[in-house]
Design brief:
Shape: globular
Strand order of the largest sheet: 4-3-2-1-5-6-7
Distance between the termini: 55 Å
Order of helices and strands: EHEHEHEHEHEHEHEHHHEEEHHHHHH
Protein name: 1-deoxy-D-xylulose 5-phosphate reductoisomerase
Number of strands: 11
Catalytic activity: 2-C-methyl-D-erythritol 4-phosphate + NADP(+) = 1-deoxy-D-xylulose 5-phosphate + NADPH + H(+)
Keywords: Isomerase, Isoprene biosynthesis, Magnesium, Manganese, Metal-binding, NADP, Oxidoreductase
Number of helices: 16
EC number: 1.1.1.267
Bound molecules: NADPH dihydro-nicotinamide-adenine-dinucleotide phosphate, magnesium ion
Radius of gyration: 20 Å
Cofactor: Mg(2+); Mn(2+)
C-alpha cells in the first residue's frame, strides 16, 4: 500500500487526483486530505477514502468539519499550521494542489519528511524555486511536475541529456480573450475571463490564462524546475491545446508531447512514475483533429510575459514579489476593484517599488523571507489599486 496525501483536495486538481486513486483503492492508503471552504466535499471524500486526518485551511470552519465527520473516527484540524503538520506525517506521495503561495509551506514540510511531491502548485517554484529544490535535495525527496506543460517537458526529456537541450517551448491556449480586439480588453468582465476555451480548471488559474499570467508563472516554473536559462524558454500560442510543450535539442530535433487537455494525464503520470499505467483519458484521433496551429504571443496583448522575463533575469525574491502582487491584483479584479488590464499595471508598479528599495529582493531565500516578501507585495498591490480607484 502506498501512503498518499492530497493538499487542495477539494479543488479541480485535487478532485481529478481523487478520481484516479478512487479507481484503484486497494493500492493506496490516504493519510491526509485538505481543503478550504468546501467542507461538504472535504468530509465526503474523507469518509469515502477513509483518511487519517482531514484539514481545512480556515480555523473558523473547524466546528463545521468536526460536525461533518462526527462518528467517522477521522481526525480533524484547521489552520495553516495544521496544514504543515499534516504534511509532515510520514507519507510516500503527496499532491500539492493548494492554489497560491499558501501551498509553499505544506509542500516544504512534505519534502522534509522525504515524500515524493507531485507539484501542481506552480506558485511554490515561482516564489521559492531555490528553496524548494534545495529542500528536496537535502532530504533525498523527489519533485515531479504536474503542470501539463512541465509534465510534457519532463516526459520529452526522459533518457535525454539536459545539456543537449537548446530550447524549451511551452504552449498557451491564449485564453478566453485571444481573439478579442485589444481595445475591448480593459472592459472584460470576471465572468468572461472565467470561461476557458479548452481546459476545465479552478477559477483563479482560468482568469490567469486569459491574462497570460498563468504562462508567465510557467515561464518562471520552467526556469526553476529544469534549470535552463531564460533565453532558452519560449512561449507559443497554440489554440487547440493538444501539444503541451516541445523540447528542442542541439541536433535540431523537436520532441513534442501531444495529448487531450485532461489534467488526469499529468496527474496520473506523476502518480505512477516511473511506470506508465493505463489512464482514463481520451485517445486523440489526429485525422479527426485535422490540423494544429501555432503563433507567437503578441507583446501588447500579454504584458505578463514581459514582466515574467524581467523577474527571471532579476532572480532572488523577485518571483515571490511578482506572485504576491499578481495574487492580490487577481483578488482585486475578481472583487471588481480593478479592470482586467489593470492587473498587469498593478504588478508592474509593485515590482518597480521593490526595485526602488535596495536589498529587499536580495535577502536570503528562507520561508520567512519569502512569506514576508509575499505579504509586502500584497500590501503594495493594495496601495496601487487604491491609487487607481
Ligand atoms: P482550485 O481553486 O480549484 O482549488 C484550490 C484548492 O486549494 C481547493 O482545495 C481550495 O479549497 C484550496 N485552498 C484555497 N485557498 C487556500 C488557502 N489559503 N490555504 C489552503 N488551501 C486553500 O485550484 P486548481 O485545482 O485549479 O489549482 C490548484 C493548483 O494547481 C494551482 O496552483 C494551479 O495553478 C495549479 N494547476 C492547476 C491546473 C488545473 O487544471 N486546474 C493545471 C495546472 C496547474 P476550497 O475550494 O475548499 O476553498
Ligand atoms: Mg499549465
Amino acid at each position: 500500500m502506498r501512503r498518499i496525501s492530497i493538499f487542495g483536495a477539494t479543488g479541480s486538481i485535487g478532485q481529478n487526483t481523487i478520481d484516479l486513486i478512487a479507481r484503484d483503492p486497494d493500492r493506496y492508503r490516504v493519510v491526509a486530505l485538505t481543503g478550504g471552504r468546501n467542507i461538504a466535499q472535504l468530509a465526503a471524500d474523507a469518509r469515502t477514502l477513509r483518511v487519517q486526518v482531514a484539514v481545512t485551511a480556515h480555523e473558523d470552519l473547524l466546528g463545521d468539519l468536526r460536525e461533518a465527520l462526527a462518528d467517522s473516527g477521522i481526525e480533524v484540524a484547521a489552520g495553516a499550521a495544521a496544514l504543515s503538520e499534516a504534511a509532515s506525517r510520514p507519507c510516500d506521495w503527496v499532491m500539492s494542489a493548494i492554489v497560491g503561495a499558501a501551498g509553499l509551506a505544506p509542500g516544504l514540510a512534505a519534502l522534509e519528511q522525504g515524500a515524493t511531491l507531485a507539484l501542481a502548485n506552480k506558485e511554490s517554484l515561482v516564489c521559492a524555486g531555490d528553496l524548494v529544490l534545495r529542500t528536496a535535495r537535502d532530504n533525498g525527496a523527489r519533485l515531479l511536475p504536474v503542470d501539463s506543460e512541465h509534465s510534457a517537458v519532463f516526459q520529452a526529456l526522459a533518457g535525454e541529456d539536459i545539456h543537449a537541450v537548446e530550447r524549451i517551448i511551452i504552449t498557451a491556449s491564449g485564453g478566453a480573450f485571444r481573439d478579442w480586439p485589444l481595445e475591448k480588453l480593459a472592459a472584460a468582465t470576471v465572468e468572461q475571463a472565467s470561461a476557458h476555451p479548452n481546459w476545465d480548471m479552478g477559477q483563479r488559474i482560468t482568469i490567469d490564462s486569459a491574462s497570460m499570467f498563468n504562462k508567465a508563472l510557467e515561464l518562471i516554473e520552467t526556469k526553476e524546475y529544469f534549470g535552463v536559462s531564460p533565453d532558452r524558454i519560449e512561449v507559443l500560442v497554440h489554440p487547440e491545446s493538444l501539444v503541451h510543450a516541445l523540447v528542442g535539442f542541439r541536433d535540431g530535433a523537436l520532441l513534442a508531447h501531444v495529448g487531450a487537455p485532461d489534467m488526469r494525464h499529468a496527474i496520473g503520470y506523476a502518480l505512477h512514475w516511473p511506470e506508465r499505467r493505463e489512464l482514463p483519458v481520451e485517445r486523440l484521433d489526429l485525422a479527426q483533429v485535422g490540423s494544429l496551429s501555432f503563433r507567437a504571443p503578441e507583446d501588447t496583448r500579454y504584458p505578463a510575459l514581459r514582466l515574467a522575463r524581467a523577474v527571471m533575469t532579476r532572480g532572488g525574491l523577485a518571483g515571490a514579489a511578482f506572485n504576491g502582487a499578481k495574487e492580490r491584483a487577481l483578488d482585486g479584479f475578481i472583487a471588481g476593484r480593478i479592470g482586467f488590464t489593470a492587473m498587469a499595471m498593478v504588478v508592474e508598479a509593485v515590482l518597480e517599488r521593490f526595485e526602488g528599495r535596495t536589498g529587499l529582493l536580495d535577502a536570503e531565500m528562507t520561508l520567512d523571507n519569502v512569506m514576508e516578501t509575499d505579504h509586502l507585495a500584497r500590501t503594495w498591490a493594495d496601495e496601487a489599486m487604491m491609487k487607481r480607484a
